[in-house]
Specification:
Order of helices and strands: EHEHEHEHEEEEHHEEEEEEHEEE
Number of domains: 2
CATH architecture of the largest domain: Sandwich
Distance between the termini: 35 Å
Radius of gyration: 19 Å
CATH topology of the largest domain: Tumour Suppressor Smad4
Helix content: 10-25%
Strand content: 35-45%
Length: 278
């Protein structure tokens, strides 16, 4: 049997077309993940059964945190759906033409973030600063207008110009501490992309054993705004006076005031510091 796990509430309840085509076919089982105990489900599978996870970044993040340290024995694939696909964007060059990508190798050694008394695994990265602010505002918009398309770029621009104020950040990478002023964001990354296509850590190797911390600083909001679009192509790293990237296995970032943080797109409010471990 080949199981396709999908979320019936995603995309306003509209299933992807390929799922409609698969319905009723021999050897195929479409399974709604609403209320599903992932751990029990995977433990119950026969050795030769396969699973396809239908979704994007949030879907993978939920799965890896639901199963904890359990190692999935069956072949697990990912079939893209939804809007959040920074993970697929990161690995697509290695999987040209594949509709279903084998996920097992990518979820075996994931990093963990420790923040506000909780710990979670993540697949792409931790956003802290203007990126976390964007997720905070987006959540507020979704609460009022659930079907409205979110313009993250517009939120970021307004945040840079009017709403988000830069911070002083103390960043410790493998025991080496540095303090930076006028910081707009300081993410720590497992992959290269986050935030819907921003290549914030262009040299990061998600299959490696270290994480990348990025410090993006600017003396004023106009300088921050001018360089910000370069992040989408990874060209911001050329601005060496504004951007500093360090790699390590344990990273702690402290801001001088609480800010919103995002974990693979999930918002955490009122964060003064976080720690990630590879």
């Amino acid at each position: 049997m080949k199981y396709y796990l999908f979320n019936s509430l995603a995309n306003n309840g509209v299933r992807p077309e390929f799922l409609k085509d698969l319905e009723g076919k021999d050897g195929i089982c479409l399974k709604d993940v609403i209320g599903l105990d992932y751990l029990e489900f995977f433990k119950s599978l026969k050795e030769d059964e396969e699973v396809v996870l239908v979704g994007g970044d949030g879907t993978i993040n939920y799965l890896v945190n639901a199963i904890g340290d359990y190692k999935i024995q069956n072949k697990l694939y990912l079939r893209a759906a939804g809007t959040g696909n920074d993970f697929l964007n990161d690995i697509k060059k290695d999987h040209e033409g594949e509709e279903e990508i084998l996920l097992n190798p990518y979820i075996e050694h994931l990093p963990t973030v420790y923040v506000n008394g909780m710990e979670k695994k993540f697949i792409n990265g931790i956003g802290y600063g203007i990126d976390g602010y964007c997720c905070e505002v987006a959540d507020q918009i979704k609460e009022k207008e659930p079907n409205k398309k979110i313009d993250y770029t517009g939120i970021a621009i307004k945040g840079l110009l009017f709403h988000f104020k830069p911070v002083t950040a103390t960043v410790t990478v493998d025991g080496v501490e540095e303090t930076f002023t006028k910081v707009w964001l300081s993410p720590s990354m497992k992959g290269r992309f986050y935030g819907g296509g921003m290549m914030v850590a262009p040299a990061q190797d998600r299959m490696g054993d270290v994480l990348s911390n990025v410090v993006y600083r600017a003396s004023n909001k106009f300088q921050a705004l001018i360089v910000f679009p370069k992040i989408f192509k990874g060209e911001h790293v050329k601005k060496v006076k504004m951007v500093k990237i360090r790699t390590g296995k344990e990273i702690t970032v402290k801001f001088d005031r609480p800010c919103a943080l995002q974990i693979d797109g999930e918002t955490v409010l009122g964060v003064s510091e976080y720690t990630v471990k590879a």
